[in-house]
Amino acid sequence: MNKSLLLKHILAELEHVYHGAVDAAQRAYETATDDENEAENKYDTLGLEASYLAHGQSKRVAECEADVIVFKKLEPLKFLSDNPVAIGALVYIEDELGDEQVIFLSPVAGGLKIKFNNKEITLITQSSPIGKALFACFVDEEIEVAFSNDKKPDNKKLYQITAIY
User: Fold this and answer.
1) At 35, phi and psi to the nearest 5?
2) Of 43, 72, 101, which marks where a domain is finished?
3) What are the b/e assignments for 36-54, b being 16+ CB within 10 Å?
4) What are phi and psi for residue 6, nearest 5 degrees?
5) Helix axes 46-72, 3-33, angle to 10 degrees
6) Same domain for 63 and 7
7) What are the phi and psi torsion angles at 40 (to 5°)?
8) What is the reported pLDDT for 62?
9) Cα separation of 107 and 88, whole Å?
10) Are residues 97 and 126 part of one domain?
11) Which backbone phi and psi does 119 adopt, to 5 degrees?
């Protein structure tokens, strides 16, 4: 797997997300400042709601911009089979059913999914449950990840690390 090409692909996707956030923030700002959204009475809150949305969108733009800046500094490190998982590692894991996932341990943008070389790659950060479990592990190690939600508060899943690049 060409790690430099992968990083360029991820960066392009992060920049696409950033530009989408900028467009959304611009639309929210235009809505918030539109003369038609001036309050006609004390119960008319459309303008106020639009201004809250514009503020939230501007914060999202700043977060996306910070993600791009941080990711640009990431070096394409080569991981060998005897290297532990760290930021910048592309990790292949397999669950108990034999389902494979490809994960990129990223400094930013956890949860982002991209397609690369006919594989879906999920970016995770070290602060996520699976990121914490994977960090500093080696090929062939098993990890246990605790996922909690309303339906299954103590849902745990086992994975085996099959490759690190």
Assistant:
1) -60, -30
2) 72
3) ebeeeeeeeeebeebbebb
4) -60, -45
5) 160
6) yes
7) -90, -25
8) 97
9) 8
10) yes
11) -125, 145
Please answer whether residues 102 and 121 qualify as being in contact, where contact means their C-beta atoms are separated by less than 8 angstroms: yes
Other beta carbons within 10 Å of 20 = 13
Please tell me the total count of domains within the chain. 2
Task: Please tell me the predicted confidence (pLDDT) of residue 150.
Answer: 65
Contact 88, 31 (CB under 8 A): no
Q: What are phi and psi of 158, to 5 degrees?
A: -100, 140
**Is 79 within the bounds of a domain?**
no
- Contact residues for 70 (Cβ-Cβ < 8 A; gap 6+): 107, 108
Nearest one of 163, 59, 68, 57 to 112, comparing CA atoms:
68
Cβ atoms 91, 107 nearer than 8 A:
no
Among 120, 90, 119, residue whose Cα is nearest residue 104: 90
Report the chain's mean pLDDT, rounded to a whole number. 92
Parent domain of 68? 3-72
| Positions of the chain with pLDDT under 50 | none
